[in-house]
Design a protein that fits this description.
This protein is mainly β and 297 residues long. It folds into two domains: 128 residues, Sandwich (Jelly Rolls); 98 residues, Sandwich (Jelly Rolls), CATH 2.60.120. It is built from three helices and 16 strands. The relative contact order is 0.16. The model has no long low-confidence stretch (mean pLDDT 84).
Length: 297
């Protein structure tokens, strides 16, 4: 006999494809979606990026304009696409991502960059990429850029389809990044003499207020390997993230940081800054971190 969950699975898959979401949907979620089925796609339908059809470094996204964005201020939007790739090579720290990016300027609020990127972790694969953003309840004054960008090696095959920007159908709330200026990139290239591989920098514009006993989630990207193992005398491709001030330096990254490291802050409630450690000598170091996000769980 088929269970209720098995019976609802095709409907859930249909909603995930329709809206571009990848969350598991409960029966209550699907009832809500069915009661007010409406797709507010900010983009023109049928857009794609395909290197086999002549697309190369970037392709302008059609449908983004001030009037359309203004309709959805104060709401949570979801940007998503499906992607198939092959022939990827991680040849440099600058050629390691492909995806969508555009900026929205507001009358009174800071500019918001809306982006969804794939950072390939293998030479070939297939994935669904999505990201949520909460739009300020403010007047939109300008849309910047608005393109699909291909920033991987030129001979890689990239095919992105089902490109969408929609209003979150479940009205979700996007957790705020508590770390200021976490976009980066953060590329330490210091020389500390006695420990030549202890290559680190503390970034003074990345302030964060941490509270004792609260739980946080760290997500970031690197062209190396995230770790919680600090070995300053050993050369490696590890990348270790810390929070530091004049009184404390505490490692917060681990091997899960690319997808999400959950941790409870067990130290003083205080202001801290991001420290990034790499383990190659001085200016020869190429290991870096970027898009560092710390949110409260």
């Amino acid at each position: 006999m088929m269970t209720i969950n098995e019976a609802l699975a095709p409907l859930g898959n249909g909603f995930r494809n329709l809206y571009g979401i990848d969350d598991k949907l409960s029966a209550k979620d699907m009832a809500k979606l069915l009661s007010g089925l409406q797709i507010n796609n900010l983009l023109d339908d049928g857009q794609y990026f395909d290197t086999t059809k002549g697309d190369s470094e970037y392709k302008i996204i059609n449908g983004l304009d001030i009037a359309t964005c203004q309709k959805y201020v104060g709401k949570t939007i979801l940007i998503s696409f499906d992607i198939n790739w092959s022939g990827y090579q991680n040849t440099s720290s600058e050629n390691n991502r492909t995806g969508i990016e555009y900026g929205i300027k507001f009358k009174n609020s800071p500019e918001l960059w809306v982006e969804a990127w794939l950072y390939p972790d293998s030479s070939s694969g297939t994935k669904h990429v999505c990201a949520f953003y909460k739009l300020p309840n403010d007047e939109v004054t300008e849309i910047e850029e608005g393109s699909y960008y291909n920033q991987v090696n030129n001979d890689a095959m990239i095919k992105a389809t089902n490109i969408k920007i929609v209003v979150d159908p479940l009205g979700g709330v996007v957790p705020a990044n508590l770390l200021a200026n976490g976009h980066g990139p953060f590329l330490p290239q210091a020389d500390y003499g006695a420990n030549p591989y202890d290559n680190y920098a503390v970034y003074p514009d990345t302030k964060i207020n941490m509270v004792y006993g609260k739980k946080y989630k760290l997500v970031a990207h690197t062209n190396g390997e995230f770790s919680n193992n600090h070995q300053p005398g050993v050369e490696s491709n590890r990348c270790v993230l810390w929070l530091a001030n004049g009184k404390l330096s505490q490692i917060i990254s681990d091997s899960n940081t690319s997808t999400g490291t959950i941790f409870t802050w067990g130290w003083d409630t205080d202001t801290y800054w991001l420290r990034v450690n790499a383990y190659h000598h001085g200016t020869a170091n190429h290991i870096q971190a970027w898009d560092v996000s710390i949110t409260e769980v």
